[in-house]
């Protein structure tokens, strides 16, 4: 592909703007009116708690049904996203920059003294824009679950293109099964995410699906089994650790692995996965990330950008979280580190 054609492909089009706008308008409407369990979030510094309507699964299923109907009556093509991959990528990037600038401006003008909307300004423009200056900013009522829904729509569009082109193979099927299960599981357990600090809107499903669409990868039966093993282990650790923490916060006396939980200082859980590593959920997330990339084979490092990126991000996040916990819990945290010496991977890190 020459430079001119690449730039032309990356140029945002009105079709991509319309697709993205329709997607976010749907999310804003569906998130507000569809039924769902109201779940209180974590208690903030000013003792207030935000409430979350957990209707993501209903919203996702309805959206897929509407897209199916639109495709059936020829209003929309199922391959619309995969056919406009780079175009949509650049449009989404510009939209993201615009939204973050609007959030920054909104935060600067906020007069709220509540923990959610009170601006925390460092004075460094780049720092404040990059990290944000409000804890729980609001934008058109759109929830962060938008990222997970968008990931599934991207994958399904790539799958539709693969079927139309007759290129569907083991690698594509494995990737689609893993990512679809992970996304649906997220919405089934949406309540758990209200107490986690996770990168739910930073999945790179488009890159992996696009790679499989344009690069033939033949997986042996042994490779498929090994890939499934990595995915299952990652899922068990990721989901199990997050569930244990969520249940413990709701009921500190709930059994963990059939036994009463061990706690340091009445606050820090050292049972179950949280007695194995201080950030064991990150290990599960990393295993899942590698399982999404493994169907792409090992002929190129490109599909492994996501797990490598995630590894760097999670180590950076873990270091920041450790510093925050050390300041918050002080002597309790020092005792916890002695009982649970490993950060993410036992006996390694």
TrEMBL record:
It is an enzyme of class 1 (oxidoreductase). Pfam families: ERG4_ERG24 (PF01222). Its EC number is 1.3.1.70. It is found in: Membrane. The keyword Transit peptide does not apply. One of its GO terms (biological process) is sterol biosynthetic process. Its main location: membrane. GO terms for molecular function: Delta14-sterol reductase activity. This is Delta(14)-sterol reductase. It comes from Cannabis sativa (Hemp). The lineage of its organism: Eukaryota, Viridiplantae, Streptophyta, Embryophyta, Tracheophyta.
């Amino acid at each position: 592909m020459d430079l001119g054609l690449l730039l032309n492909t990356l140029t945002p089009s009105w079709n991509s703007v319309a697709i993205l706008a329709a997607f976010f308008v749907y999310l804003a409407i569906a998130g507000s009116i569809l039924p769902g369990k109201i779940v209180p979030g974590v208690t903030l510094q000013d003792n207030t708690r935000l409430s979350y309507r957990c209707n993501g699964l209903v919203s996702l299923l309805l959206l897929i049904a509407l897209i199916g109907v639109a495709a059936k009556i020829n209003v929309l093509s199922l391959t619309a996203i995969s056919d406009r991959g780079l175009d949509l990528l650049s449009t989404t990037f510009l939209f993201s920059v615009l939204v973050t600038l609007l959030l920054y401006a909104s935060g600067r003008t906020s007069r709220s003294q509540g923990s959610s909307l009170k601006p925390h300004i460092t004075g460094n423009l780049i720092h404040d824009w990059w990290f944000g200056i409000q804890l729980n900013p609001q934008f058109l009522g759109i929830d962060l679950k938008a990222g997970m829904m968008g990931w599934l729509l991207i994958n399904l569009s790539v799958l539709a293109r693969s079927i139309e082109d007759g290129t569907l193979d083991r690698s594509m099927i494995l990737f689609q099964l893993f990512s679809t299960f992970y996304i649906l599981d997220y919405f089934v357990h949406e309540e758990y995410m209200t107490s986690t600090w996770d990168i739910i809107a930073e999945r790179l499903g488009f890159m992996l699906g696009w790679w499989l669409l344009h690069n033939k990868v033949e997986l042996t039966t042994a490779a498929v089994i090994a890939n499934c093993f990595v995915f299952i282990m990652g899922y068990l650790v990721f989901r199990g650790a997050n569930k244990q923490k969520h249940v413990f916060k709701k009921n500190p006396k709930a059994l963990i692995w059939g036994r009463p939980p061990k706690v340091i200082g009445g606050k820090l859980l050292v049972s179950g996965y949280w007695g194995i590593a201080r950030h064991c959920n990150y290990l599960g997330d990393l295993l899942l990330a590698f399982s999404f990339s493994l169907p792409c084979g090992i002929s190129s490092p490109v599909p492994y950008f996501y797990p490598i990126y995630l590894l760097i991000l999670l180590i950076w996040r873990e270091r920041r979280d450790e510093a925050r916990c050390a300041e918050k819990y002080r002597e309790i945290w020092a005792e916890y580190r002695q009982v649970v010496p490993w950060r993410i991977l036992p006996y390694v890190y």
